[in-house]
Write a structure and sequence with these properties.
alpha+beta; 8 helices; globular
Length: 363
Amino acid sequence: MDNLENPENHGSATDDRLPSHVIQRYILNNKDRKKNSKTVKRTADIAGLAPETRPVNRHRTLMQRPELIDIVRRPLSPDTQVEVPATRDEYDQVCEVIESEEMKHPQLLYDSTRRVAIVVAGPSPLHSGMASELVVQIRDEVRQGLDSAVSRGISTSTDEIGTQATSHGLTTRAWDTALSYTDEDDNDMLMIAIEVGVSQSYESLRPQSLGLLGKKPDIRYYDSVSDFDDAMEQIRRKFHDQLTQNPYGPLVNDGVTWFGQVGSVVLQTFRCPDEDCAKETLLDPTQSFTLVRRGAFVGLDIPANLDELVLGDCIPSHVLSDRQIETRPVNFFHRDWFEAEFRTFMLRYALQRVRVKSLVRQS
């Protein structure tokens, strides 16, 4: 996997785990099952991040045989992953509970090789928003110049899940977003998938007063709805100006940090090995690109098609009649677009946090 300290290393990834920059493991010793008896031992740091930071995107936690259903019912921070030793039968039983209770989150996956269930909390707004926009950008670029009969087979999805039989049993994995193609025979083929890693320090995830670690901002009261609307517009403009100077944060107003600086952003792609790739196929990581490091854009040398993505990766070759068209690059990634989208989601998220701490006095 690529290290955050080497954004130039855009080689093929062979590890079937999520990007190394967002993986963190803990061992929780809970032998007597008393809350106060837990001890936590750090076993791996995040590549390229200071030890005191705690990224929330896709960090993993390995627990010593707790009940899987207990973990599923725990409140989890956005983008957290918890790995629990479990059999496939235990996994299936808890999946039935999730389905019967119509729980949207958490999501439950399974690795049959390591015999662990993976509990995946709901995504943060920034993470899910950027992943969705990226795959839509790919779809729109692919459709350009194609006959409508061909382009209508392209579809996108979020939280795509695949289950496949292996020599160790059934394995279930998921990706942030995916692009699929359905041909005239109704064959639904998974073509490419996208993972977006967004890392921030734990403190940057919560609104807090500057210089007072952990202190939550007080609720601000307004005399009228008009005063409230005017204040929100002023804060929006202030945040916009700050993002002009620092595109990846932080966003600060009246001594309160409403959105901390983004530490890193990594984009990882997954591609089907051939056109017979079934919908449930478990794709392996293809390439990983570091876009942002320590609040600065570092992806200047990344090609618009990520140096790999062509039309034939998105549409099966038996659908495309021209081989030259099949090798046409899908130039979907542009820095201006990426930073504009990122600013939009950061601004929206920060303003929502401000609104939660703002009230209009009752007359």
